[in-house]
Amino acid sequence: METLLRYRSLVAEAAALRSGADDPVAAAARTCDRIDAVDGRLRAFVPEPQRRTRLLAAARQLADGGSPAPADRPSLYGITVGVKDIVHVDGLPTRAGSALPPEALAGPQAAVVDRLLAAGALMAGKTVTAEFAVTAPGPTRNPHNPAHTPGGSSSGSAAAVAAGMVPLAIGTQTVGSMIRPAAYCGIVGFKPTYGRIPAGGVIPNAAGFDTLGCYAADAAGVTLAASVLCDGWRDDAGGEESAARRPVLGIPVGPYLERADAEALRAFREHTERLRAAGYVVREVPVMGDFEEIVEQLFTMNRYEVARAHAEWFPRFGDRYREQTVAAIRQGHTIGDAAYEAARDRRAAFGERLARDAAAAGIDLWTAPSATGPAPAGLGSTGSSVMCLPWSNAGLPSLSLPAGRAEGGLPLGLQVVGARGADEALLRAAAGLERALAGEDAHADR
């Protein structure tokens, strides 16, 4: 039986395709072969009977359509990409993991897809999402152990990368929908600063939080993708001095960190000591003593926005929604405008306070477990998003790096969070952190 795990280097594949050592048609065929081999067991992709015909035709058009010389080929030339099924792609129906008619959900192609296509990428297909990217799980299974959830709501995107079906996939995060699946599936997930990737053409969960992001097998891969997808990307942001300096890491001590389970905290302590041994300064910073109030504030805003996002569809198709989504929408109906505005004010104050706390402690990046523990057994839940909640609330860029395994063999992740707008600095630091977590020289390439 075909092994379910296979990591594909986005950077290596992109280099081979741009140089001419590989060609888009062959790459597309390999993607189809891999999907055919393992997706029957994992169900990461939305079924598409004519996928191979469509994808190979697109690859031939790219290869034969007057493609530029190798030196002039765009960054993602010939790369196959999985796209979460709340993101509109011309020619592919959007179902959002729901039983609603696709024609009711139709809309213009998403800006993120336009950027992928302009960079030479090929759409491998739609990946499974929890219903409307809320909490009702899809059928996707974890490639490390199919008896466990891959996380959500970007379930299919994370599983597709972990299983080597594609080297790059697009997801979204409202609270923890990118970072948690990355940790559960043992890959790298990147959620940029809120608004850094345009959200046009994406069905909203809660528009004040929804953020597009990407998955790849390693930090170099998400960095390559981010340079294409993010507004105003600057490879030289921060200058040479900033690039050469190790970031100071902060541990957010207090009730937030205590939400992780004992196994996740034990592993986090080990990861912290490994980073210290690699030469990183790590400081404990007491923060978020009012964490329960932060959680309440976020969900006041979130549920209000969920209900408004479905104001047109829910009255027409409410009987087709799943129980968890109905509960979120009905909760949102109970929240008035005044409560929402008050929660929004508290959110702004929280973001400012968190930035002040980081500055006062002299830290560059926060670190924490990516999830409360390894992927839970079963497919009835996608797991808890609470370890991602404050960072999503503040709109900060975050990253999950693979960080060892739990006692049962499932992967764990280290969450690294940057300052608002400092996505480049976060990803520049990621490669060194990745090496240090693996026990390698954190500055091997300097």
TrEMBL record:
One of its GO terms (molecular function) is catalytic activity. It comes from the Bacteria. Residues 30-427 form the Amidase domain. InterPro entries: Amidase, Amidase_dom, AS_sf. Residues 137-156 are annotated as: Disordered. PANTHER family: AMIDASE DOMAIN-CONTAINING PROTEIN, TRANSAMIDASE. This is Amidase. It comes from Streptomyces gilvosporeus.
